[in-house]
Write a structure and sequence with these properties.
51% helix; alpha+beta; binds adenosine-5'-triphosphate; binds magnesium ion; 383 residues; single chain; seven-stranded mixed sheet
């Protein structure tokens, strides 16, 4: 969390110590748009070690000249003026060079609307014609768009993110450069791409961004997502990210290996996708086996695809009313079964347990210790 008031304290303290400092980037943009501020970034000619002498700090990105400043329980990212060096692989600047002037610092930034500066007395300094673009609601790179996307192709997705967040138009030259340079996204780490996509889906104007992703052809550069993006672009309400990914991977019939999902997430998308393809109803045993979240996701996907009704309430109710939600809820434990039957532990235990789960779930057997004991003894008679 950061506040404008706190940021101004930081600016003033830096100034008192003989340095220049400005609020920069998203905070200035959002302040002028009267939108709520996220984090506040500060740019200064003080070097990280000099900033650390003035404030309580944490070295967040020393390589890039960034320290986090703590002020009144709030945090501010303070970065030394820099010019970015040659980009080695479009992923990380090979080196950062501190620069002398704030003008150089803003010129390395991505879009004109993100290149505005603000002083402690609310004065706006504009070296990049950002104010004009902000007024006209235009997303335009600072400098030649081909060069800027060539340096860092992630900026392509950032353009769509700002479109989704702000509802602005992407300037024609910037858009043409996106179409031309989109192949460069192949060089960008998938984690970074994934994060931008999540941000795009959270925006108020996500529909516009999806439309631009399609018209520029950038959606084809996102493994396994192009059919999903085309599909949701036709929808009235854009789904949340999990439902979108599940839908996209269902249409794609697989979860491409390039995506850096955790095992848990990959499992979620794969299983919910399979469930969607296999079921349009979710019976008690399916609910028990796959759990509420996956069944809801699968139903949501089928609903979006027009294959079934929205059964959210029914699925939630049915799940709530399951006699047991895990085999740990069975009133007869594996150890009890072994003791009761006097048989050696073996595969039969798991088999019997599964059988009892199915009977209990389908309400043919009550989940009571005596009832389960009687069932177990009966089943194991003569085995
Ligand atoms: P948000 O509201 O999402 O935080 P933001 O504009 O603050 O928007 P950040 O990702 O927080 O965006 O980045 C802060 C600033 O750093 C940007 O406003 C921009 O000036 C600069 N920046 C960030 N990423 C890049 C990039 N890939 N290339 C050039 N400049 C960038
Ligand atoms: Mg920010």
């Amino acid at each position: 969390m950061s506040t404008l008031k706190g940021a101004k304290w930081v600016l003033n303290d830096l100034k008192k110590n003989g340095y220049e400092a400005f609020i920069v980037g998203g905070a200035v943009r959002d302040y002028l748009l009267k939108e709520p501020l996220n984090d506040i970034d500060i740019t200064t000619n003080a070097k990280p070690h000099q900033v650390s002498k003035i404030f309580k700090t944490k070295p967040t990105g020393l390589k890039y000249g960034t320290v986090t400043v703590f002020m009144n329980n709030e945090t501010y990212e303070v970065t030394t003026y820099r010019i970015d060096g040659e980009y080695s692989d479009s992923r990380h600047p090979e080196y950062v060079t501190f620069s002398e002037t704030v003008e150089e610092d803003v010129k390395r930034r991505d879009f004109t609307i993100n290149g505005l500066l603000m002083t402690a007395s609310n004065e706006i300094i504009d070296y990049v014609d950002g104010k004009e673009d902000l007024k006209n609601k235009i997303i335009r790179t600072i400098g030649n768009p081909i060069d800027r996307f060539n340096e860092d192709a992630l900026r392509i997705l950032r353009a769509f993110y700002f479109q989704s967040k702000l509802g602005f138009q992407i300037d024609k030259d910037t858009r043409d450069a996106i179409s031309q340079m989109k192949y460069k996204l192949k060089d960008i780490a998938m984690e970074r791409i994934f994060n931008e996509i999540i941000k795009i889906f959270k925006g108020k104007y996500v529909k516009r961004a999806l439309h631009s992703l399609i018209t520029t052809g950038v959606h084809h550069e996102l493994p396994g997502l192009s059919k999903g993006i085309e599909f949701v672009n036709q929808m009235e309400d854009i789904p949340f990210i999990d439902a979108f990914f599940t839908l996209a991977f269902t249409l794609n019939q697989s979860v491409p290996k390039e995506w850096p999902f955790s095992n848990k997430h990959r499992h979620k998308y794969e299983t919910a996708s399979k469930l969607a393809l296999a079921h349009d109803q979710f019976d008690a045993y399916t609910l028990y086996t796959y759990g509420l979240e996956l069944c809801l996701l699968a139903n949501k996907v089928n609903y979006m695809l027009g294959k079934s009704k929205n059964q959210k309430n029914k699925i939630e109710n049915d799940f709530e009313n399951l006699p047991i939600q895990s085999d740990l809820d069975l009133k007869l434990r594996a150890t009890d079964m072994i003791k009761l039957t006097g048989k050696k532990a073996g595969a039969w235990v798991k088999q019997l347990q599964t059988e009892m789960v199915i009977e209990v779930i389908n309400r043919r057997l009550e989940n009571k210790k005596e009832t389960l004991e009687a069932y177990a003894l009966e089943r194991m008679k003569g085995v």
